[in-house]
Request: fold
Amino acid sequence: MEDLAYVQTHALEESHWWFVGMREIYRKQIEALDPTPDWRILDVGCGTGGNLDLLERFGRVLGLDYSLAAASFTRDRGRSGVAVASATALPHPDETFDLVTAFGVIEHVENDGLMLREMHRVTRPGGHMLIMTSAHPWLWSVHDEHVHHLRRYRRRELSERVSGAGWEVEQLSYANSALFPPIALVRAFQRLLPRPGPDEEHGMSGFGVPPAPLNSALAGLLSLEGSIMRRIDLPMGVGFICRARRTETKTLPPHSAERDS
Reply:
């Protein structure tokens, strides 16, 4: 992402309904794993660090991001355990972590299969992965380009990527379902409008915090979705939540599941 996007994310991630609500979904997904206080957790693509406080409730947390700007914001939070490295070459030994997370990361990575295999490699047998990513290629918008997305996933495509990297998929659900219809309408309408010029394009334009009652209500909707996901997969949504388990003991060879986008 551009540095401006990190600045805007850092300013919004403590209060904006999307960040607040998605953290509730992540919390409920992790609680379903019955974590213990001695868990070791790695957050791949930790960005400006908005999810690290949540993850720290469940164990000892390390963060990693490719961007020096993002790591700088995270260290400004008082967190020293943040590495600057690639998601496709994790600087950690095999079978180190009980949980590896990547929230809004894989859609930025050219070799997503390699990223998933690296996450598999550093996870202990019986450990878990939790990722969030963007759904439906037809929802592609200028915002995806602003934040340097490379793709939005189809459900089957994401499932095959995850399974092909050696993971056993435990849950693959859509997320942000309540707002899917209006967002789909807006994206369709935007295609009919002239593309904005360079002077009108601003990294996360239109992503400000709405009035407090609406902001709380929208965050509550996502939290409710997190509770529903504890029982069933949601049938539609703007994004995906995927939880998977490492069941086997050997790391896949480098060429396995090689499916570059």
About this structure: The chain has a mean pLDDT of 89. The CA atoms of residues 117 and 253 lie 9 Å apart. The first strand starts at residue 40 and ends at 44. Residues 212-229 form the longest helix (18 residues).
